[in-house]
């Protein structure tokens, strides 16, 4: 990866506060934007407005009206989620958690925000905490993100020294403390209740719902969990308003605002860009990522992480928003796409993916704990050309048995979605792994 900022053709498009609310403050040298520079670029202006001019319910309503949805992959409406927090003022101990685990293979968007714009996340959490009446926040960070942890801790220290965190922030009477908590690097911690268990020092298993975290979360208290990119959208919405935010997406998009999108694989210009929802995947692939490198052809692509289904080159005209990608058979996920070139064997690629998902299963429910290793065993046999008759049917059964609504959480359904789509579009490659000739048994000589 050349850089984590916009590169290639995107550099010819000027980033501005009006069109690129997430990335317009980025430095060309990809160095972090610290407090002085962040404030020179209107940093914490939205927080001042939220804490000194707006009522708590007004902030919640504004986020709800904006149409902001979760940017971690699930796409649940953020304002609706906030509205689930109890209104009872006596429940004055409540928490805001930032899901910064980002363990989805092929995804690095939150890393860029935390490393280069740490104060944007701090400001987003401050405003969100005010809206939720949360007095304490935690950034649950993937342990491998060492640079992000260092930069976030420095940003928190700077904000504290400037009176932007702590007691009576900006004279508003609102208190908010913020902490970075690094995890051990487990994929399952991306599930919000597994994250809560891990934060409490427990095994990272998902919890049974209901009760939902909004009612019973961290240490039994009301809790809201939002993704990094989601929280980073909040300052711009508060500063510029709902009508402005809704103009950012392309016409026809059902999702509002902009999204960090990217392409990796053997493309000419792998990278990450802030683009409006509704941009055609072909524009992302050809104009920004530059298409495939010389000597390679696009065979398939995933729109948003390893847990999304494979699509074909003819699906590149699909618009990049949740319903637009759903129409061609999969989910948008994190919005960071993977280009699979024509040199890749799909059986080997799926074996690699399913090994990851099987290893990252928490082992809580039987379909996931036993089904994913079973898929790995079958795929390994097919990869060696030692598959048996019925193996493909077994894989199809596993895709069905581990599908949505049949496991305790969404880990297994996400794991088998790429497997099911790969078998749909590239079945001959799977069939080629079945031993075509079984040596006939030698006849026993008469009288032996």
From TrEMBL:
Composed of 13 different subunits. Subunits NuoCD, E, F, and G constitute the peripheral sector of the complex. The keyword Repeat does not apply. Signal peptide: none annotated. It catalyses: a quinone + NADH + 5 H(+)(in) = a quinol + NAD(+) + 4 H(+)(out). Coiled coil: none annotated. GO terms for molecular function: 4 iron, 4 sulfur cluster binding; FMN binding; metal ion binding; NAD binding; NADH dehydrogenase (ubiquinone) activity; oxidoreductase activity; quinone binding. It is an enzyme of class 7 (translocase). Gene3D superfamilies: 3.10.20.600, 6.10.250.1450, NADH-ubiquinone oxidoreductase 51kDa subunit (3.40.50.11540), NADH-ubiquinone oxidoreductase 51kDa subunit, iron-sulphur binding domain (1.20.1440.230). Residues 347-392 form the NADH-ubiquinone oxidoreductase 51kDa subunit iron-sulphur binding domain. Belongs to the complex I 51 kDa subunit family. This is NADH-quinone oxidoreductase subunit F. Its cofactor is FMN; [4Fe-4S] cluster. The keyword 4Fe-4S applies. Its EC number is 7.1.1.-. InterPro entries: NADH-UbQ_OxRdtase_51kDa_CS, NADH-UbQ_OxRdtase_suF, Nuo51_FMN-bd, Nuo51_FMN-bd_sf, Nuop51_4Fe4S-bd, Nuop51_4Fe4S-bd_sf. NDH-1 shuttles electrons from NADH, via FMN and iron-sulfur (Fe-S) centers, to quinones in the respiratory chain. Keywords: 4Fe-4S, Flavoprotein, FMN, Iron, Iron-sulfur, Metal-binding, NAD, Oxidoreductase, Quinone, Translocase.
């Amino acid at each position: 990866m050349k850089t984590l900022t916009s590169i290639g053709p995107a550099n010819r498009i000027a980033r501005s506060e009006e069109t690129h609310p997430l990335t317009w403050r980025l430095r060309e040298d990809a160095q972090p934007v610290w407090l002085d520079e962040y404030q020179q670029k209107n940093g914490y202006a939205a927080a001042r407005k939220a804490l000194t001019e707006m009522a708590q319910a007004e902030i919640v309503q504004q986020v709800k009206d904006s149409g902001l949805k979760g940017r971690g992959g699930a796409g649940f409406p953020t304002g609706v989620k906030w509205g689930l927090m109890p209104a009872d003022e006596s429940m004055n101990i409540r928490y805001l958690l930032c899901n910064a685990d980002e363990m989805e293979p092929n995804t690095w968007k939150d890393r860029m925000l935390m490393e280069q714009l740490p104060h944007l996340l701090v400001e987003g959490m401050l405003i969100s905490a005010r809206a939720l009446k949360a007095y304490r926040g935690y950034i649950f960070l993937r342990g491998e993100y060492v640079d992000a942890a260092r930069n976030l801790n420095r940003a928190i220290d700077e904000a504290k020294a400037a009176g932007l965190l702590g007691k009576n922030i900006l004279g508003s009477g609102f208190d908010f403390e913020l902490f970075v908590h690094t995890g051990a690097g487990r994929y399952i911690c991306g599930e919000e209740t597994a994250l809560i268990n891990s934060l409490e020092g427990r095994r990272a298993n998902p919890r049974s719902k209901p009760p939902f975290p909004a009612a019973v979360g961290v240490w039994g208290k009301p809790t809201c969990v939002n993704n990094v990119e989601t929280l980073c959208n909040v300052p711009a919405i508060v500063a510029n308003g709902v009508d402005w935010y809704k103009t950012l997406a392309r016409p026809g998009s059902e999702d509002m605002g902009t999204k960090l999108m990217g392409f990796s694989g053997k493309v000419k210009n792998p990278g990450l860009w802030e683009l409006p929802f509704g941009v055609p995947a072909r524009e992302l692939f050809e104009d920004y990522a530059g298409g495939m490198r010389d000597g390679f052809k696009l065979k398939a692509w995933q729109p948003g992480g390893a847990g999304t289904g494979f699509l074909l080159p003819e699906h590149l005209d699909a618009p990049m928003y949740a319903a637009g990608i759903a129409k061609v058979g999969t989910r948008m996920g994190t919005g960071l796409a993977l280009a699979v070139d024509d040199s890749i064997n799909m059986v080997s690629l799926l074996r690699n993916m399913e090994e990851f998902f099987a290893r990252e299963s928490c082992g809580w429910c039987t379909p996931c704990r036993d089904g994913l290793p079973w898929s790995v065993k079958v795929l390994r046999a097919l990869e060696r050309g030692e598959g048996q008759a019925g193996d493909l049917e077994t894989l199809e059964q596993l895709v069905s048995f581990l599908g949505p609504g049949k496991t305790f959480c969404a880990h297994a359904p996400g794991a088998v979605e790429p497997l099911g789509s790969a078998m749909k579009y590239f079945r001959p490659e799977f069939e080629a792994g079945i031993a075509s000739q079984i040596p006939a048994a030698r006849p026993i000589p008469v009288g032996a």
